[in-house]
Design brief:
The chain is α+β, with helices and mostly antiparallel strands. It has a single domain, classed as OB fold (Dihydrolipoamide Acetyltransferase, E2P), CATH 2.40.50. About 15% of the residues lie in helices and about 50% in strands. The protein contains one helix and six strands. Strands 1-3-4-6-5 form a five-stranded mixed beta barrel. Keywords: DNA-binding.
């Protein structure tokens, strides 16, 4: 089992397969840096195509920019593209997702606003008269 930490590169998508199973597909970027022999900092980004099979409900939380910690299995694949060039990619079969931070700020604000409105509605329905 491997663990990776990175940022979601675009909003997750749910795919429905022929047997009605649902899979959440998303990609994660992992940034790394190191000094080369000349002492210059070199930035390197690794991308993983991720699949999560356990619950499609998590897709709404996997938005662009969200920092996630993923546990699962890594695999690689290679293919020949339409242009005839050899392509390769890294896949991550995700078994566990842990959220570390938000992506879009407006999404977080909308959730907070909705919860505040729910509390106000509940507070307005209460009676101030005591039963004794």
């Amino acid at each position: 089992m491997s663990t990776i930490i990175g940022r979601v590169t675009k909003n997750a998508e749910i795919s429905i397969l022929k047997n009605d199973k649902q899979v959440v597909n998303f990609s994660v970027a992992i940034n790394d840096s190191y000094k080369n022999r000349q002492g210059e900092m070199v930035e390197q980004t690794t991308y993983y195509n991720c699949a999560y099979w356990q619950s499609p409900n998590v897709a709404k939380s996997l938005t662009k920019g969200t920092l996630v910690e993923l546990s699962g299995r890594t695999s690689s694949n290679a293919w020949i593209g339409k242009d005839g060039e050899i392509k390769s990619g890294l896949n991550f079969h995700t078994s566990n997702i842990k959220f570390h931070g938000g992506g879009k700020r407006e999404d977080v604000q909308n959730v907070v606003t909705e919860k505040t409105q729910e509390k106000k509605t509940f507070a307005e329905d209460t009676d101030d008269d005591l039963p004794f």
